[in-house]
Design a protein that fits this description.
Strand order of the largest sheet: 1-2-3-4-5-6-7-8
Number of helices: 9
Strand content: 15-25%
Shape: globular
Structural class: alpha/beta
Distance between the termini: 19 Å
Largest sheet: 8 strands, parallel, barrel
């Protein structure tokens, strides 16, 4: 599963959302850390109907209050954001809650919380995230997946941080449920083509893994 994370000005965010939705992306996280409440609300007012019509899952970074106000599909919570248990009490059992993890210890800690998926990373350096945690690299990600299997931690993991199309196969083979991509789609010349490239690779490798497991 490909999650697209927005990045840029409100106008850029709306343009990104329309472009990726038009080209098949089914999961969007709105991340607008430096935007005003007014700008974020305007983006949500315009993007929610578009996503709803196309069957696209729409979550927001950090802002549990706006996820509740706009009845979004859920929220992604960073390590310094609201505790997932509090967010669950506000949003209810039917909403999606994701939580960030930057290490094995983080994975073990958040896996005991009322969340639906873990955002694990960064895989590599990225300029779209401020206060970037230490890079894990593919070997670090694989090591975490192996330990999760040993400990029986079965929560879905979405890998994030400088993801490239070529990373999808190795990550899915290692155990990733999905990838979250921002800059490699949002900040290229042809957003539509970039989104299609990620989706095509994601589908191919998911099919390969499914066939191998059968």
């Amino acid at each position: 599963m490909l999650q697209f994370i927005t990045d840029g000005t409100p106008l850029q965010v709306m343009s990104q959302i329309k472009s990726v939705v038009d080209n098949g992306v089914k999961w969007i996280q709105i991340r607008m850390k430096d935007a005003s409440d007014c700008d974020i609300r305007n983006v949500l007012q315009m993007s929610k109907p578009l996503c709803h019509e196309r069957g696209v899952t729409l979550v927001i970074d950090d802002r549990v209050d706006l996820a509740y106000e706009f009845d979004l599909d859920g929220v992604h919570l960073g390590k310094d954001d609201m505790h997932p248990a509090e967010a669950r009490n506000i949003l209810g059992d039917k909403k999606i809650i994701g939580a960030t993890a930057n290490s094995l210890d983080d994975v073990i800690r958040v896996s005991a919380m009322p969340i639906d998926y873990i955002g694990l990373g960064p895989l590599r350096y990225t300029t779209t995230k401020k206060r970037l945690a230490p890079v894990l690299g593919l070997d670090g990600i694989i090591s975490i997946f192996n330990t999760m299997e040993e400990k029986g931690i079965n929560i879905p993991v979405v890998v994030i941080g400088g993801i490239k199309v070529a990373d999808i196969g190795p990550l899915i083979s290692a155990g990733a449920w999905g990838v979250a991509v921002s800059g490699a789609i949002a900040h290229v010349g042809d957003i539509a083509e970039a989104a299609r490239s990620f989706l095509a690779e994601d589908k191919i490798n998911c099919n390969i893994v499914s066939e191998r497991k059968i």
